[in-house]
Design brief:
About 40% of the residues lie in helices and about 15% in strands. The protein has about 280 residues and is α/β, with parallel strands linked by helices. Strand 3, helix 3 and strand 4 form a beta-alpha-beta unit. The protein starts with 10 loop residues before the first helix and ends in a 7-residue tail after the last helix.
Length: about 280
Amino acid sequence: MVVEVNSKISPSSARAHTRKANQNSSFQLPPEVLNKLLVLLSVGILAWGYQAIQPPPPKICGSLGGPPITAPRIKLSDGRNLAYKEEGVPKEGANYKIVSVHGFDSCRHDTIAKFLSPELVEELGLYIVSFDRPGYGESDPNPKRTVKSMALDIEELADQLGLGSKLYVVGYSMGGEVLWSVLKYIPHRIAGAALLAPVANYWWTGFPANLSKEAYKKQLWNDQLAVGVAHYAPWLTYWWNTQKWFSSCSAVAHNPGVFSTKDRELVMMPHWQSRKTYVVPT
């Protein structure tokens, strides 16, 4: 006698059976392989990040593939070349021999001479020499640059040009930092020094903390970020100044918003217009 059993499978049981079958048949990486892949991915991300924050190698003027040499240059004692520019009256008959130190994103052409009338220069007997700081313009970079080395570069420039035992030094913007170096390391060579719109270090301990904080907050927000990156993470400075995600510092972007209306009218707009004659577009 044959008995037929008509068993029915519920939909929920069928779905559970299907899920179990799929789980058993799904592909899974062994843990050791997955760990190796994660390590490789992490190394790749770190390598990409490291490359992104590294500045490209400098193109040395006069070298293969580098820009041509157009300025007079002196050879310093360590073998580097320093480009310079002379303006004003001849140094032999000058009443004042002035070394002009340019700031950030500038070069030997950005000198105080462009803000002085020829008549005033002649009347006062001003001789002005400016130079490309190491790594700027046509001067060789100095991978061993220190605060002291900048002062010694100026002293050597003065000696090779025969400017005598005493100099006047003027530093504009970030060129002002060089004046502190000059006053500290070669004070015996300095007849006078002037700071023009110098950039301050908001973390100098000699400044009252409340004054530093107030001045820092008066900057545009993008400049606060740029200065903060340079102070707290200097190794990110190149990346920050070249990235396109956020607004870079006003000096890099040539943002006139940091100047008053009168400054823009009298100084900065004519200054930036004149830069078009010697700045290579990037």
